[in-house]
Amino acid sequence: MSPLLTVANLTKQFGTQPVLRDIAFELEEGEVLAVLGRSGCGKTTLLKILAGLEAPDTGTLALHGQDLRPVPPNERQMVYLYQEPLLFPHLTVFENVAFGLRIRKAARAEIDQQVTELLDELDLRGHAQKAPHQLSGGQRQRVSFGRALIIRPRVLLLDEPFGNLDAQTRADMQQLFLRVSRQHHITSLFVTHDSREALTVGTRFAYLDQGQLTSFGAVAEFIDDPRTSIRSELAFWENIQQNAASAC
């Protein structure tokens, strides 16, 4: 069976500055490709090209074999989630999540059922009639996640979606993402600068550095690559634990 998403020889530069260099990867249905990289490495540009918000200079991208380059963003069956939830401030939580179904003119009973079930999954049912400004940051991000899921996208593109949340809320959202992703068999490209987040959410791993993407065949390779700094982080925490144990 062919991959769901295939990207090959993708390049992009702004002026004389190369941003992406010969990017290539594949995504199977249900996979979460966690792409780790520092700020300015090209992660956001890659997602915008996939979403149709930027055009590549060269290269191909295909969804189940269909060339995506001429396909407008609203027909790509992809949803791009940012750090900021970007909710409609004048709509309730329920109506924000229902928006995509209403645009598609789904039946009212279908909308009520699907939105209510999804709000339950996202622990938002008690907030259905609230406005976005009445929610916490984590709750707003869950509403944004629900609005994306309700239209059953083929691929979710996540641009550091939990980056603005505090540590505990971020950890909670990572676990929520894992649970819902598995339940709905969601295919995702999740970019982050946080190695722990990448290891938590990913089923496959890659590293983006100066516009070049390295894919790893196994999690051990990802951890051991010195560019990810994961091995040094692990050593740091092991030293902290040993020092704490010695002090006791």
From TrEMBL:
Gene3D superfamilies: P-loop containing nucleotide triphosphate hydrolases. The keyword Transport applies. It holds the Pfam family ABC_tran. Residues 5-235 form the ABC transporter domain. Keywords: ATP-binding, Cell membrane, Ion transport, Iron, Iron transport, Membrane, Nucleotide-binding, Transport. Signal peptide: none annotated. The keyword ATP-binding applies. SMART domains: AAA. PANTHER family: SPERMIDINE/PUTRESCINE IMPORT ATP-BINDING PROTEIN POTA, SPERMIDINE_PUTRESCINE IMPORT ATP-BINDING PROTEIN POTA. This is ABC transporter domain-containing protein. It comes from Hymenobacter antarcticus.
